[in-house]
Write a structure and sequence with these properties.
By secondary structure, the protein is an alpha+beta fold. It has one domain: Histidine kinase-like ATPase, C-terminal domain (Heat Shock Protein 90, 2-Layer Sandwich), CATH 3.30.565. Helix 1 packs parallel to helix 4 and helix 3 runs antiparallel to helix 4.
Length: 178
Amino acid sequence: MVQLLDEVIHVAKAQHGTNAIDLQPVQLTMILHEVDSMTHLLAENRNLRLTIALPDPDLYVLADPHWLRQVLVSLIDGAIAQMQDGAIKLSVASIDSQFVHLLLEDERPAGSWQEAIDLLQSANPPQTLSPGFGLMLTQTLLNAMNGRLELLKVPSAPGETQTHLQCSIPIVAESDLG
């Protein structure tokens, strides 16, 4: 419970400017390497296949490296926590003139997206973030970095497992790097 509150406090401080967000050009490949090293053992321990496809090393985004890493680790950790088997893949879906769009594809069961209405009245409060609350914190951090989080596809029936989340991060033009 303390870890949960700590994460909420950190995000709130970032949103209100107490924890400054330092937007700077960041090599996306470097961040994805770090995210992979922070998450691959957890996935292996759960017998899940985790693939993080690395983009061109010349691709830079405008973000706070600490918070971007936190966002991506949080998204992957959320998927790992809700899956019994299957695969998770993080890759660059597309690049346009303003954003790099990262796509997180996983195989969470449909039930993992349903939250109990009486969660707060429960005698046993949750020890981890619910999917919706975790996504809200992630979206708040991305918004603070001028990015966005979109839920593109969620399983809608029992037996369905495909989830697609898109994380869009502002791109840095090569002319701005030199």
